[in-house]
Amino acid sequence: MKKLLSLIFTLSLAWLINPASAAPPQAYDETADAKAAVSQALAEARKVDKKVLVIFGANWCKDCLELDKSMHGKNEALLASKFITVKVNVGQFDKNKELVDLYGNPTKKGIPAAVLLRPDNSVLYASKGGELSNARKMSEQGVYDFFDEITALYR
Fold first, then answer.
1. Which single residue of 33, 52, 88, 150 could bond 117 by disulfide (Cβ 3.0 to 4.6 Å)?
2. Residue 73 backbone phi and psi in degrees, to 5
3. This prediction's pTM
4. Burial code of 22-50, b = ≥16 C-beta within 10 A, e = fewer?
5. Residue 150: beta bridge partners?
C-alpha cells in the first residue's frame, strides 16, 4: 500500500511539474505558422495535382473539433485522395486574420469554415454562410459528401 501511494504521489508530482506532456494533442495547432503551412500545401498540390482545402477553426469550438474528427477515420483516405488539407487556428477570431481576409473572410458567419484552392492559390470555393458551423450535426458521410460536392462543382 505504501508503494502504491508513493507511486501515485510521484506520478502526480511529475504531472504538476510538466502538465503539458499530459495534454492531448490539439486539432488546431496554435503555434503553427499558418501562412507557411498554406504555402507548403500549395507547393505540394502543384506536384501531385490536387486541390488545397483550408479549414479555419479553433480548439474551443465544438463544431470545429467535430469536423476534425469527421475528417479522420473512414473519411481520411477519401479526403486525402482529393485534397492537401491545412488547418488554420483562428483563436478567438484574432489569429491569422490576414489569411482569413485573403480568402474573403469565410469565418464571418462562423467556424469551422472552409476554402478550396487551386494549386495557384486561386479560390474555387469559400464558405460564406456558416455552412460547416453545425458540424456536430453532420455525420462522417455528411462531411465527406459536403466536400465531394464542392469538388464536383468547382473543378
1. 52
2. 65, -135
3. 0.82
4. eeeeebbeeeeebeebbeebbeebeeeeb
5. none
Burial (CB < 10 A; 0-12, 13-18, 19+), residue 64, is buried
| Cross-strand partners of 56 | 88, 113
Q: Are 115 and 143 in contact (CB under 8 A)?
A: no
Going by C-alpha positions, the residue among 135, 98, 94 that lies closest to residue 113 is 135
One digit per residue, the tens of pLDDT, for the chain of length 155 reads: 555 444 444 444 444 445 444 556 799 999 999 999 999 999 999 999 999 999 999 999 999 999 999 998 778 988 899 899 999 999 999 999 999 999 999 999 999 999 999 999 999 999 988 899 889 899 888 888 898 888 788 77
State the sign of the Cα–Cα–Cα–Cα dihedral 27, 28, 31, 37. Answer: positive
The Cα 55–Cα 60 span in angstroms is: 15
| Segment (H or E) for 39 | helix 34-48
Three cell numbers, residue 26? 490539439
